[in-house]
Write a structure and sequence with these properties.
Number of strands of chain A: 25
Distance between the termini of chain B: 15 Å
Number of strands of chain B: 0
Largest sheet of chain B: none
Radius of gyration of chain A: 27 Å
Radius of gyration of chain B: 24 Å
Structural class of chain B: mainly alpha
Largest sheet of chain A: 11 strands, mixed
Oligomer: heterodimer
Structural class of chain A: alpha+beta
Helix content of chain B: over 70%
Shape of chain A: globular
Number of helices of chain A: 16
């Protein structure tokens, strides 16, 4: 017995030694969890926010997001000595010339040169690579396969854009624009294994147990290594919100980027100083197929008149939803009721006001309708009046009797289902039968893109702080044009009007097609170098978009996360990337 | 080994190959018939880029040609191709990565379940109708009827969140303890009940009475005669159970965020990662076929009366 006791004691002592060494080594190490295994950590191929968070810790580009002394987030030069304005050429193109700072090395010790940028950009934009975000280079002359970017020497990078782009400096901080070395990516599997993963940023990848954990260790070769306060970050890979929360609550992890929806209300009370609702530039909305019929049987309207009527009907139907109810009772994550397509978080021309605050017809409220709780009844009444013009209304029951049965399509997910059921119940209240159909994610995307639906759940997240990232997806030939504007029968509909002459652009169309109006406006915006005029045109484009009623925004997305109060110096940028490198722990 | 047995094994192997070929063929064509594709995303890439990717992975070829190429690569080179979604990684590497964890988890759980299950079952049978028997039966009934997601969540909340004794995540040190317990409880209870009832059956047989009458000692009856013969139903159960546990219980992997093969299988389908779907399907199908074969062969070892046909 004594022997056994002694043995146990010895084992316990050994274990406690292990524990102590662990604790010492863990002093400047953070255990966090932002998502499950990333699809890729190749900066050019990545299109996910969690992948981007890892990549910005591993790489450094010409510019980056940084907090100033007032706590405000700005784009500042990183590997570029500064971010100069463009030189406007005679043909209207804009040339930027960047000089790299001295002494920048790759994690394997080789020197980083401007050539690495040239190679990386050409690769990322190329058709052959097929990167999701390759299109971000479309502002560059020669996109996709003859990109006008050149390293004139080891230190100098010259790039020519089709015209001056106001958000160019922000693009430079985006993962797709990070440098990559040609000999490194020659190995196609380079970004899947720490041994072949060569980066140039604050951290190097020292471990990757697939589907389990990625370990980043401070890079002593990083040119601003003294600013980095965390020696090691373990990014645990999990997509189960319940599991994340368990690890957070037992103290193993100090930051988690998701929590179970059902727990949100409790957690807000339980962890008032550790539960955060961050902004995210995105909109949850319902998209209507402009070519699907919703007019009553026997309706005499045809052609352009029919589509005009449908636009009015769709807009009215959109007013029936109580967005405050949706965010407080269903979403429960601090989402903001939406009244415009371009989301909260995107700023207007002056950089101070929000784009959505300035949008819409009225000065009394932001956006295209008043989303305040008080205005809900008035919105409802206005909608019913509009619908009465087209459908038979039975005053006794308060229901429309000849609205055709429609189908709401959503991807299989409890949250989307709850919202679908709410929309369904609102419609049922006025006699409209809407059946719910759910499809598995990939099938759903396919159906929606093909326009094989009447009304569907939809959502969009901006890739950079410029409203064009919300607006150019609706041009006729866009792959994201789920509402089918300018496609099928809608291609012929001459019912759209736009006037860009106040902005110095020679586009004024009354009753034109989608291509003549919206597509023309987006083209004008993309080739416009004047900020004021550009934002004016973007508002005009959104006005046209919203007048179709085919986009019914419900709320602006938020980003929920929890971080221990022992961790200081953490921040997230407007795109949802999380920055751990400047953290300190108590 | 008799020639009859060799013939039997050969026949079963050929049947297994046929089964797997059918699985491959059906999966391949059904998978391609489902709408969507590996390069479809919320943010659409250009048609040209999509075409370039399809050409790169040979998805632009006629379906039947893709099928024959795929079969040829597997048979001649054992090449399952690259993952279409996790770019730069080979399907075989991803499967092996997942299998390492799943196999470790599954084997430990299965062995623990078998050992404890047989012991508890035997004890319950020998001490039939005592308090001990009743306790064992009540507990195992509870475990058999409790789904693993409830059991897992329950253990997680008690031992990880409240007591903070064990980590909640499979990747942490000691992180496999809770998943192993969750995984083993059901088969353990099942085996306990199987062993108990079949042991009671055997203990009532004439030859046991004869042995007892001969004066053979109690323990030698239990271990030498009764236990061995009462294991036949356990073995029937053990083979498929092992395959099932080793190939990953999706639910347990999800609850404890264990990087096993089960999660890969599910996500490959949602991603339309064609090569991954094929790879995991072939792998799991082969494993189950092999396990069934092994458990059939084990019958013979335990009960020489069984004849192979």
């Amino acid at each position: 017995m004594k022997k056994l006791f002694a043995l146990m004691l010895a084992v316990m002592m050994m274990l406690s030694c292990v524990a102590v060494t662990n604790a010492e080594a863990a002093k400047t190490s953070l255990n966090v969890c932002i998502a499950s295994e990333p699809d890729t950590l190749d900066p050019a191929l990545n299109s996910a926010v969690d992948g981007a968070t890892l990549i910005i810790h591993l790489f450094s580009g010409l510019s980056k997001w940084a907090k100033d002394e007032n706590g405000a987030l700005n784009i500042v030069p990183d590997l570029a000595t500064d971010l100069p304005a463009a030189v406007i050429n005679e043909d209207g193109t804009a040339t930027y010339t960047y000089t790299l700072v001295d002494g920048v090395k790759w994690s394997d010790g080789k020197d980083l040169t401007a050539k690495d940028f040239e190679f990386a950009w050409k690769r990322a934009a190329s058709t052959a690579l097929g990167a999701d975000y390759g299109y971000m280079f479309e502002v560059v002359k020669g996109y996709p396969d003859n990109l006008a970017v050149e390293a004139t020497d080891d230190k100098t990078l010259v790039v020519t854009l089709n015209n001056d782009v106001s958000y160019w400096n922000e693009l430079l901080s985006f993962p797709t624009f990070l440098p990559i070395r040609e000999d490194v990516v020659a190995n196609e599997a380079w970004a899947t294994d720490p041994a072949s993963y060569v980066s140039n940023g604050a951290y190097t990848m020292t471990g990757w147990e697939h589907n389990s954990v990625i370990t980043l260790t401070k890079n002593p070769n990083y040119f601003k290594a003294d600013e980095i306060t965390v020696d090691e970050i373990n990014f645990f890979l999990s997509d189960d919100a319940n599991n994340m929360l368990a690890n957070y609550q037992n103290g193993d992890w100090v930051m988690i980027d998701d929590v179970p929806t059902a727990e949100i209300a409790n957690l807000k009370v339980q962890y008032p100083t550790e539960f955060f609702v961050g902004s995210q530039m995105g909109t949850y909305y319902v998209s209507w197929n402009v070519n699907a019929n919703i007019l009553p049987e026997g309706c005499e309207l045809t052609g352009d008149d029919a589509e005009k009527a449908r636009a009015e009907i769709r807009f009215a139907l959109g007013l029936l939803f109580d967005r405050n109810y949706i965010v407080t009772e269903i979403g429960q994550a601090g989402q903001q009721p939406a009244s415009s397509f371009v989301a909260l978080g995107l700023t207007d021309a002056d950089g101070a006001k929000q784009f959505y605050e300035v949008a819409g017809p009225s000065d009394e409220y932001a956006g295209y309708w008043n989303v305040s709780e008080d205005a809900y009844e008035a919105n409802w009444d206005a909608a019913i009046e509009t619908l009465k013009k087209y459908y038979t209304y039975d005053e006794a029951s308060g229901k429309f009797t000849n609205f055709p049965t429609i189908e709401y399509l959503y991807n299989t997910n409890d949250g989307h289902k709850l919202i679908g059921e709410y929309l369904q119940s609102v419609f049922a209240g006025i006699g409209i039968t809407m059946n719910l159909t759910n499809q598995e994610w990939n099938t759903f995307l396919n159906t929606r893109k093909a326009g094989d639906y009447t009304v569907a759940r939809n959502g969009w997240l901006a890739d950079y702080n410029d409203p064009i990232s919300f607006l150019d997806m609706w041009v006729s030939n866009s792959g994201n044009n789920d509402s089918q504007f300018g496609k099928g029968a809608n291609a012929e509909a001459k019912i759209y009007s736009i006037d860009l002459t106040p902005y110095g652009v020679d586009v004024k169309v009354e009753n034109g097609t989608w291509a003549e109006t919206y597509d023309a406006a987006i083209a004008a915006i993309k080739s416009c170098g004047d900020k004021e005029a550009r934002y004016g045109m973007m508002h005009a484009a959104e006005d046209l978009l919203m007048s179709t009623g085919a986009i019914t925004p419900l709320y602006y997305y938020t980003d929920i996360y929890m971080i221990s109060e022992n961790v200081q110096g953490f921040f997230a940028n407007p795109l949802g990337y999380k920055y751990f490198m400047y953290c300190t722990t108590k | 080994m008799s020639s009859k047995m060799l013939y039997y094994i050969l026949k079963r192997i050929l049947l297994a190959i046929l089964t797997i070929w059918i699985v491959i063929t059906v999966t391949f064509f059904v998978m391609h018939a489902v709408p969507g594709g590996p390069f479809v995303g919320e943010k659409a890439i250009s048609k040209e880029a999509q075409a370039a990717l399809e050409a790169k992975y040979g998805l632009d070829k006629p379906l039947f040609e893709q099928y024959t190429t795929y079969l040829r690569d597997i048979v001649t080179k054992f090449d399952f191709g690259p993952s279409l979604k996790q770019r730069g990684r080979q399907v075989i590497d991803i499967i092996m990565d997942g299998m390492k964890t799943s196999a470790k988890l599954g084997l430990i759980a299965a062995c623990l379940a078998a050992v404890t299950g047989i012991v508890l079952g035997a004890v319950a049978a020998i001490r039939r109708n005592t308090l001990l028997d009743k306790i064992i039966m009540v507990i195992t009934t509870a475990f058999v009827s409790m789904p693993s997601f409830i059991m897992g969540s329950f253990l997680l909340i008690i031992f990880s969140v409240s007591l903070k004794w064990l980590p909640a995540n499979g990747a942490m040190q000691g992180g496999l303890v809770l998943p192993v317990i969750t995984l083993m409880l059901y088969p353990m209870s099942y085996i306990t009940r199987l062993t108990r009832s079949s042991m009671l059956d055997v203990l009532g047989q004439d030859y046991i009475r004869t042995a007892r009458a001969k004066g053979v000692s109690r323990w030698s009856i239990i271990f030498g005669h009764a236990l061995k013969n009462s294991l036949i139903p356990v073995i029937t159960y053990f083979g498929p159970m092992l395959a099932f546990i080793v190939t990953g219980s999706m639910v347990v992997e999800q609850i404890f965020a264990v990087p096993g093969i089960g999660r890969q299988f599910v996500s490959s389908i949602t991603n339309r990662d064609y090569t991954m779907i094929m790879g995991t399907t072939i792998f799991l199908a082969s494993l189950i076929v092999i396990m069934n074969l092994v458990s059939d062969l084990l019958y013979k070892v335990v009960d020489p009366r069984i004849e192979f046909e």
